[in-house]
Amino acid sequence: MWQDLMNEVRDQQALFDIAVRDWIAGYALKQGTIHCGKGCHACCSLAVNCTFTEALAVSTSLADRHAAALADHAAKIRSAAFAAPDFPSFLRARRALGGCPFLDSDGACGVYNRRPFSCRSLLSTKESRWCGADFSTLSREEKQGFVESLDQSVAAFPMHYVKATQDLGQDFESCAAGRMAETFGFGLYGNLPVLVFLEREHRLSETAPKGADAVREQVARAGCNHPFLITFSP
Ligand code: SF4
User: Which helix (H) or strand (E) holds 190?
Assistant: First the structure.
């Protein structure tokens, strides 16, 4: 069952990549620039969420060097979630932990072919320094200058990432979550490293056929039962 779901996600990701390439080409025709490129990883310290099927695809292809860093990273994200008084605080704490555990030393994504829709959909209309910026430290004038510099016809205002590809990525994500729900009676969504950790250390995919309650119990036993980390649907 899982193999079929992962194959579907792989096919959908290929379609999504074509749509993104087309979007970038169309934007270039209007003199628009996307600043993303191999080795640029300034956005890889953001909290990345995805469906469990996408995380499972990452888990099955994980190299030893990434697996070794995973447990420690997942533990830090878990602590950050339980310590944070609200979601923005969690996002800041997540960012302070540094890059994604799947980054390679040259700054390239180590799971590039399996990376989830949320990573594929993030296109920057500004230079990479803005992807790594801590906006809470900017002056009012700096923030205003940033906002005024945005191409508001495409940006997910007040951020500089492209709205259309993020919206499309969410549609594809919903489709993947829906397929899991059709198959197992529930959908599972959450933080990418935490989901991959749960699969590798606790074999969540083997529990899923027993239903949502069994998975909930397993997530709780692993200490990951927090809405910033894991959510169930419907
Ligand atoms: S999965 Fe790859 S692209 Fe996504 S945050 Fe991690 S290193 Fe970056």
Answer: strand 187-191
**pLDDT tens digits, 72-105:** 999 999 999 999 999 999 999 999 999 999 999 9
d(CA 60, CA 200): 9
103 within ligand 1 shell (Cβ under 6 A): yes
Domain boundaries, position 172? 2-233
Distance CA 90, CA 83 (A): 8
- Dist. CA 125–CA 146, nearest whole Å: 12
Nearest residue (by CA) to ligand 1, atom 5, is 44
Q: What is residue 132's predicted lDDT score, i.e. its pLDDT?
A: 83
CA dist 145 and 167 (Å) reads 26
Helical axes 192-202 vs 212-221, angle rounded to 10° = 90
Q: Whose CA is nearest to atom 8 of ligand 1?
A: 44
DSSP letter assigned to residue 49: E
Closest CA to 43 of 87, 86, 94: 94
Pairing, β 49-51 against β 230-233: unpaired
Q: How far is CA 141 from the centre of its chain?
A: 31
Q: List the one residue out of 181, 36, 177, 180 whose CA is nearest residue 117.
A: 177
Which residue reads 């994200």 in tokens? 77
Q: In total, how many domains does the chain have?
A: 1
For residue 151, give every residue at least 6 positions away whose Cβ sits within 8 Å of its Cβ, in sequence order, or none: 32, 125
pTM of full prediction above 0.85: yes
CA of 4 to the centre of ligand 1 (A): 24
Within 8 A by CB and 6+ apart from 164, the residues are: 23, 154
